[in-house]
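Example S7 (structure tokens).
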């Protein structure tokens, strides 16, 4: 699995010149973002530095435990982050900042953030099926985790409509050849 992860990194480096992976806790900028997120989410997002990988421009900022995570987990997560790298290439850093952070609202109804994340989460689901099998993404725990990312303070309540997110999830499962009925079990 480590070889597969390293091959993915090499592919991304060819695809995105200047690509790099940086630990979040070693970045002053990321520590400032963490403080801002704690404040603007009224404390709902306190694990930004320790639990979330973040892509800005051509850099993927990773948690301090990144190198200790199983290669399979790093691979699946990096597949998600690769989508963000491609989004930054397509929309530019300024464009992504405006769309991702501000439109239509910074909190609660962040439609562009939700759409960008949805694209990345679907790729993560695709990778999870490849690595862990269909049962993994069909599980209630996985589904609930993904839905919570959209509807909780984790991403600033980017799309706080659980039924809509669950519909998106079911549509993604269908594109992966996974049945929605089994995902509810």
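Recovered sequence:
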């Amino acid at each position: 699995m480590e070889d597969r992860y390293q091959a993915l990194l090499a592919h991304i480096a060819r695809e995105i010149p200047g690509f790099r992976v940086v630990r979040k806790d070693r970045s002053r900028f990321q520590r400032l973002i963490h403080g801002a997120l704690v404040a603007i989410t009224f404390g709902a997002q306190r694990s930004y530095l320790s639990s979330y990988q973040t892509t800005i421009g051509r850099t993927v900022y990773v948690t301090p435990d990144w190198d200790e995570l199983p290669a399979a987990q790093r691979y699946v997560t990096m597949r998600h982050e690769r989508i963000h790298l491609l989004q930054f290439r397509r929309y530019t850093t300024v464009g992504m900042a405006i769309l991702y952070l501000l439109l239509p609202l910074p909190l609660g109804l962040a439609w562009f953030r939700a759409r960008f994340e949805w694209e990345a989460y679907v790729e993560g689901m695709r990778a999870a099926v490849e690595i862990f099998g269909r049962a993994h993404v069909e599980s209630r725990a996985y589904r609930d985790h993904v839905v919570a990312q959209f509807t909780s303070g984790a991403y600033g309540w980017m799309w706080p409509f659980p039924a809509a997110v669950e519909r998106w999830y079911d549509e993604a499962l269908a594109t992966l050849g996974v049945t929605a009925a089994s995902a509810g079990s």
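Notes on this example. The chain has a mean pLDDT of 93.
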